[in-house]
Structures
1.
Amino acid sequence: MSYTVPHYIDGHEVSGGLTENPIYNPATGEVIGRVELADKTFLDDAIASAKAAFASWSQVSLGRRTAIMFRFRELMKAATGELAEMITREEGKVLSDSVGEVGRALDVVEYVCGVPELLKGEFSMQASSDMDVFTFREPLGVCAGITPFNFPVMCPMWMVPVAIACGNTFVLKPAKADPSAAVHLAKLFTEAGLPPGVFNVVHGDRHAVAATVAHPDIRSLSFVGSTPVGRELHRIGTSSGKRVQAFAGAKNHGLVMSDANLDFAAASAVASAFGAAGERCMALPVILVESQIADQFTKLVVEKARTVKVSGGMEPDADMGPIVTRADLEYIESVVDDAVSAGATLLLDGRGYKPPGYENGFFTGPTILTDVSHDMRAYIEEIFGPVLLIEVVKDLGEAIEIIESNPYGNGAAIFTSSGDAARRFIRSVPVGMIGVNVPIPVPVAYHSFGGWQDSFFGEAKIYGPEGVAFFTESKVVSQRWLPPTTAPSATFHFSGASSAME
């Protein structure tokens, strides 16, 4: 099977551009398609279409927006199997993970189906004599999103439904590695009744990213990717007056206390580190474990990791699929090589593993390292692969100090039976999302997602209440209605914190 993925502009597919980029099936290593990369003309056309559509879409009633979102939700739910197969075919994760990704994306769509409630303003009657004050929120204009390969459905759906339900229009640049799902989502929106130009998909490379950030008609930018790129996009975007939310790298830590359910904690560590081949920013690649139970816990983790079935994502019994590209695979294994050369202990070695029947795929198996010092690449860098580091700590205090010293602040988790330990952990660690006996604490759609420190650059997080605030601006109106025959009143006088408006 070979196919070409086009752009989606102004309500229909558009072909052409600078060049075509190969799309691989990571499980087989074969080129299965190509994606067209846009030149500046295509990007300008998409932004112009979005700008033109904003004039009318921003005035569409909340009732109609809600009806379109409900219809899109039904279409997307019905297309779960098709979308999941697209994800697995191009990204590599096992089919059950792909189905789960679509489900989490649907959570956000369902959240914004309640947009009339989310956009309700505030009203104060008789704030002053015969004067009322009210607040409401208005959309920004043309919004842009740049999303990564590892969640080709969920990450766009963190942004797009919220933005357009609030009355904005949107231009999405998905990852080149797995672009099919984004175009399919755009088609579903059109089928649901979304007018042309409200949601556009343009494929491109770093030049397209730069042009998007620099374009004067883009009012906001949402990004998910690496820390260096996120920091730079935030700097450039905000300097030109854009709103920017940049979700960046991570090095999440989990802590296993001596009073934890060890079997559950070990299973959670394995699922978190090796699920989706470790290619997710909310994985737990570092597990800190109290010294009293370190040997017992480590033995359990290694035993469970050995049972992880690595194979092609379409295989019904597969637990973990391939890495997305050969270059990513080579990087992951090079970091493990360096750690071993620097003195780390290899408890489980996944390097070079090739599942039967998938010898040409981009595979590596689960890898577990101990004795990793904090100056090694394996600890410093976000490996984004199935590599788990286990480190022994003496107590909760030492674990908190280690997490505090890490520059990232995306997520963390604690496994314990102690409410006191959990509360201290929650209050102390400088991260944005915390799990208590929950290994991957991605918030539900009616809370907001986002980290701290080098894991996030911006002011408002994504989806949930902060997402609605990010994609809208508040407007406050003070109004007084007087009978036509009323004589002009005296001027208002302000003095310090008080006024004559009484």
2.
Amino acid sequence: MIWRAVDDDCVRTDGYVDFEKALGKENNGATTFGTTTFPATHGGEARLYVGSGDGLTIWLNGQLVFDKQVHRSAEPDEDAVDVDLREGENSVLVKISRCIGPNGLYFRIAGDSS
């Protein structure tokens, strides 16, 4: 497995992370992992809004919080996931199981005062 940084130009203002732009079209139809960390001013309830091209699995702070294996194109807010954030740094790992087409996902967090 090779990890590569995703440049800022691969993340759109609407929350779409464009892995095709980051990795190239030859990686469409591949399983892709992405990871990041983000701060939360206060711990507590929050909601992840996600949209994926095909299957999506999400781990938050090492815990599986979402797993949906479907065949679809990525759209904003296709799914909502209630989670508990911890105060300070939180880590997220996503796995996109893409069969064909552009590789990417929508991802945003609502709640907390992060």
3.
Amino acid sequence: MSTEIELIDGVPSFTVTQFSEVLNGVLKLSFERGVWVEGEIEGLRKPSPHAYFSLVEKIEGAKCSANITIWAGQLRKLQEKMHNQGIELKDGLKVRLFGRPEYYGPFAKLSLIVTDVDIQFSAGDIAAQREELIKKLLASGVDKENKKKTVPLVPLRLGVISSGQAAGWADARQQLIESGIGFSILFCDVRVQGDDAPSQITQALKMFSRREDIDIVLLMRGGGSRGDLAAFDDERIARAIGQCSHPIFTGIGHEIDTSIADLMAHTSAKTPTACAEVVITLVREFLGELAYSATELRSRTQMALSRSRSRLSRNADRLRTRPQVALDRAKQKLTMHAGSLRLLDPATTMSRGWSITRDSRGQIIRSKNDVAVGDTVVTLLADGTITSTVEGVA
């Protein structure tokens, strides 16, 4: 201070400016090496190029708060440091910040001017929150809901959710085209990272869920840092996947990345191109089975035709030969019957010395009681007839 301190009854008296300078002097002396303060970010405002927010702590219903200021130069450095570890500066994030307290007289505001952040502290909290969310989703069965959906036999109508500018989607799209399969693609362009990504992806999932002109939904995002992929760990997306009426296939990030969206989806692939390949394989397997079935059908049809031709040929031969055989057998039977009839013919019997005698009425006389003395009878011989008169019956 440039002026001498006035004392009143031994107690210092300051102007407001002096009081502000004293406070800053005390703060600088007390926190000469700086201080770490931890809490939860609340009310983040980033009017370019600086950031302002409160760091809060809630204990038994009471809230304690500290004002935080990050100047533009430090903000860029801290954001880059956090982004590389998959952490984004946003409300609700628990952080441990390093800085020096400063009292700003014009606004009567005490703030912590931040110059560093403890990445491990925030990463640990984010990981714990992620694990807690996964446990909650698994306990409520959300991870099983979309897996119950039936994938159509030939999934050709694809609903795709991705960024139109993403290289991952471009590669996957090229792969779908080069497969030569006639996929129908309905594309929904969304943000796949940043604050707006979870809400946009959630709305896209709900929109596709209402449509009946698609078979499956592909949710894609190429590689990036953990911060770039953080949107896919959002609870809103997880629940929208569980509620979607279509099977959802994901292709998010790199080989080593597994998001909560992957865990909730019907089928997950490591990358967008791998996701496209899964769909292509499904269709090709069906086409292969269809070709095999067609070959089998053709082969069995040819065998059936061949057997039918053989049966027809045999039946034709039988039709040509069986009538003659039947006729020959009929002739034999006729000859046999004719012989039998000849044996039964009275003329044949009479030729062997037998005769037939009839009365005057033409009735065959079988007994002596059939005639009386004086009756006229006619005897039929093989070569003629004899008419006689009965003179006596013995």
4.
Amino acid sequence: MTNEDTLRWLEHVADVLRENAAYLTQLDSAIGDADHGTNMARGFKAVRDKFPTMAAMDMAAQLKTVGTTLVSTVGGASGPLYGTAFLRAGTAITGKQELAAADVVAMLEAFLGGIVARGKAQINEKTMVDALTPAVNAAKQALNEGATLKEITTRATQAAEEGMKATIPMLATKGRASYLGERSIGYQDPGATSSWLILRSLSEVV
């Protein structure tokens, strides 16, 4: 991946989140503040506005710009969580002019690490971590098996989708959804869904 590819990924994410804003907000209306889709679409619109300047940046700077933009424009928990994720992802690839498969896996691992560090969530707590953890594990396994970047991102996306769907029967113990207790069971986590969409966008661009 080159910096043009990274920018193409981010542009695709912005499109996909705009297209799915109503769906994400609908999911969030059941167990959250009914604003996840709106917030994510607004955040990535602000990112899109910076694309002309980002085109000349290296990949690390691009991802860090996404991180700082999301922190400053996205409301609720999503801004700090995704902002930290993109900042950590950028740090993981500092100095790289292009990304080999191992670099992309390291970037995804750092992305997850940023969310865990900021949100203190673990697996099985009905959060974005439930989509991202299996995705990163699948990516690392695929890399160890010598898979291509296309295969790695495809398998990561499939694992994220399974993890996202697995949040439906879970009891939420973190964030706004945890206030609902037993009533949070039976609903898909919106954060896990947006995480899957971000990974799916990467896979599609690759």
